[in-house]
Description:
Blueprint: H1 6-27, H2 33-41, E1 45-47, E2 52-56, E3 62-63, H3 65-78, E4 82-85, E5 91-93, H4 101-109, E6 127-128, H5 143-153, E7 168-171, E8 185-192, E9 195-202, E10 214-221, H6 225-239, H7 250-257, H8 259-274, H9 280-289, H10 303-311, H11 313-322, E11 323-325, E12 331-336, E13 347-349, H12 350-363, E14 368-370, E15 376-382, H13 386-395, E16 410-411, H14 426-439, H15 442-445, E17 450-453, E18 467-474, E19 477-484, E20 496-497, E21 502-503, H16 504-521, H17 529-536, H18 539-545, H19 547-553
Parallel strand pairs: 6-7, 7-8, 16-17, 17-18
Antiparallel strand pairs: 1-2, 2-5, 3-14, 4-5, 4-13, 8-9, 9-10, 11-12, 12-15, 14-15, 18-19, 19-20, 19-21
Amino acid sequence: MYKYNAFDEAFLAERNAQFRAQVARRVDGSLTEDEFKPLRLMNGVYLQLHAYMLRVAIPYGTLNSAQMRQLALLAEKWDKGYGHFTTRQNIQYNWPKLNDIPDMLDALGEVGLHAIQTSGNTIRNTTADHFAGAAADELTDPRPYAELIRQWSTDHPEFQFLGRKFKIGITGSPHDRAVVKAHDVGLRMVEQDGEIGFEVIVGGGLGRTPMVGKVIRDFLPQADLLPYLEAVLSVYNVLGRRDNKYKARIKITVQENGIEKIRELVEARFEERRGEFDGTDQELLAEIKTHFTPPALRSGSTEAYQAAYETDPVFRAWADTNLAEHRDSDHAIVTISIKAHGATPGDASAEQMRVMADLAQELGYDELRISHQQNVILPHVHKNDLPAIHARLKEASLATANIGLISDIIACPGMDYCALATARSIPVAQEIATRFDELKLEHDIGHLQIKISGCINACGHHHVAHIGILGLDRAGVENYQITLGGDATETAAIGTRTGPGFAYDEIVPAVERLVETYLAIRTGEEETFLETYRRLGMEPFKTALYPEAQKKVA
């Protein structure tokens, strides 16, 4: 992983000192909140429902053990003992005091972390496949390119005041684990004539107008990445709407002008920008790649893993759901669920963070990843170490065997924290997970993704869920709409709304009816909820959701 050099350290120290002075001016009244707002947003500080919130960037979701321990320290020293991992592979602290935030930023800088551009109308944290560098299906590790984008985009003078925020996602695998088609720009690494480059997708995004991105370039050589991104951003910066913030994202620019016109403008601008790059970016990329050398994986027997798998049903259930195939057959990728039944999705205590840091240092080649699904990954674990890891995770309440199952729910903070939210998200997620744990059905149900948002901004990604839930305010009462058929993978799709929404006390029974219907009509255990929906469509699920409407028709 990338390590800060002297320039990075000096830049960050100067930036943090600048913000410390801005905070002091806000506290003594020299700055009003309106004057302070753009300054704090540039440094990842929000004003939430009850307190300030600090959002820390975890670039392309990659951490080492020292960084995870520092995140634990921040939670314990300046917050309420926990942090919240987000769908942007960041971590949020919901209760810091404004006076303490400069100290928090300095502490982050000590381990090569920051909060720059985690908010505001600029290029946000570039996200990546959380299995990057380890996945068996990977063409190449996308993280060096994500780091190149991070360095290029940080304080880029042309793109600090865009019409709206701008998000870039990248994956190095045919199977999309980074939701690239729901990004302003999505990058898929592809191979053409023996050369690896990028398929470039533009105009994706969720929120009040959800859209799947469109391919603007089938193949972009690696050397052209930055000039092409500059061309896309430059065209958007000029052409994008600024008269209406709800129409200011690049997805609306693409929709209103058409992909062909956008492609024509971008290609023309690309030819101009390309000549401005003298190869320095490629020299920088070559240096960056030296920081992403794969770990020296040890070899050896996997008999201890096989014995535990065959004799311990609890371990076997965890292995079946929480392990993924590694590029080395003696190793596995471990996903640590931050979704214990009844817990807040994405929340981890300081002590849990330290446990995960210890495991990474001792048994995981000192690497951790944060997924957009709000879980934590140990990307390289020798299979013989898996029983010991599982035992230690159990002691820390981190061994829930539910990755990809119905209780592995993505949920935004909702009205419990967010000033923009119109309904609660966290309690709905907790009750759904608890209910299906009581029913002991989730392993029978199989792969089913539920995602919940507490407002139309869709921070919970509900549009691309198999079952999406959107909480809204209806005359002062929480009302929850359901969408079906969303997909966050390479076959991305926006879910379809089923019909009228449900009251807070009706939403869990409604989900239960959907699942009961799926179990009754699937062709067999191998057919997932999404496959059943695509085969039969909305009608059987709609009938189950609205039985009273069916009676009236009859």
